[in-house]
Amino acid sequence: MSTSGTSLLKGKRVLLGVTGGIAAYKVAHLARLMVAAGADVRVVMTDAATRFVGPDTFAALTGNPVHTTVWDEPGTVLHVRLAHEVDLAVVAPATANVLSKLAQGIADDLLTSTLLESRCPVVVAPAMHTGMWDHPATCASVEALEARGVTIVGPVAGPLAAGDEGMGRMSEPEEILAAVEAVAARSTELAGRRIVVTAGPTHEPLDPVRFIGNRSSGRMGVAVAAEAHARGADVTLVLGPGAVTPPAGLHVMRVETAEQMRDAVVSAAKDADAVVMAAAVADFRPERVAEGKLKKEAGPPEVRLVPTPDILKELGESKGDRVLVGFAAETSELEASGRRKLLAKNLDLVVVNEVGREGTGFGFETNDAMILTRDGDDEPLRTWAKRELAAAICDRLAKRFG
Ligand code: PMT
Predict the structure, then answer these.
(1) Ligand 1 atom having least distance to the Cα of 328
(2) Does residue 390's CB lie within 6 angstroms of at least one atom of ligand 1?
(3) How many CB atoms are located within 10 Å of the residue 84 CB?
(4) pTM of the full predicted structure?
(5) The predicted structure's pLDDT at residue 74
């Protein structure tokens, strides 16, 4: 809960989505806590949720009508109205079913249609039996939602429905409230800021079908873009080929080569407050691109490589007030190499990744990395989930702009 004494939810319009799990009875208490914190709570229940708790309970607690179907307000497009009028959405309890629908973009009831239309920050509090929580389908849904910037609270281990025990119990309402308050606080931290983020590899063509590339998946850059967007920034994502799908709400510029990435970044950076270069830009490209497919019969081609533009260096040379964040992919002497790049490219912050080991960095879910900054707000080498590292970068951007 807020430690400052001023509620972070005061005046916020919160959509509370209740889905069909026994933990729905505890969500009545969550609704009460959010109202007490000053939020204007609008409840949407699925059909299944109404079998656990009656809509009148939530109507009495929130002072607002509770909606259960898209047809509740003939004459208005209810899911669109709700989607646009709320500042934040919470789904509690969130069943495996609703997680999967949100991950897939299925909109077959009022709650899922509203959340598909909305671009507000979303917090979900899963609750289900252990087998459902551990199922690869649920794991994939949770991963997809996290990659889009959705905050997942819990679940925790403990007593479940039908007298069972295990992982899958919904977090307590007070804990969900704390997460909702944290998201509310974060959601405006970068409001009014324009941030350019790059993600993914570049492909440097050899002929019409072949290229020189690297193993970057784009996850790291997309995580930074999603986090900055969740904090209210206006984000332009310059995205290399074959990279992960970015969340809605970003301006996405798709590029293929280092040259194209340079042009996109330089143009987007003109009125940006910060640029975060998480892309793995090729340092070299083939000097010549063959017009036709290189023939095997002609023998191995001799390929002369020439340097690509160093985008970050160019940005550093005309830095002005813009905050510049770089990444450094290193296999040895991490700190020394990182400090060299911080100075050589005129950066404010560099994330130094240890790469070349199985399980971390290029293409994986985690990064073994340290953060080095000009102002000493450093973090030693450790393993980070990419979204956690993205949050640490955005914390520093917010401090810088604060
Ligand atoms: O995409 P993922 O699978 O999630 O993997 C994430 C990542 C490992 C690719 C990412 O965390 C990362 O380290 N990105 C930068 C990789 C890299 O190109 O490092 P570098 O040390 O070669 O380059 C240093 C910096 O200069 C980088 O910010 C890079 O974007 C930038 N650069 C590099 C070359 C170039 N021609 N222009 C540049 O601007």
Answers:
(1) 21
(2) no
(3) 13
(4) 0.88
(5) 82
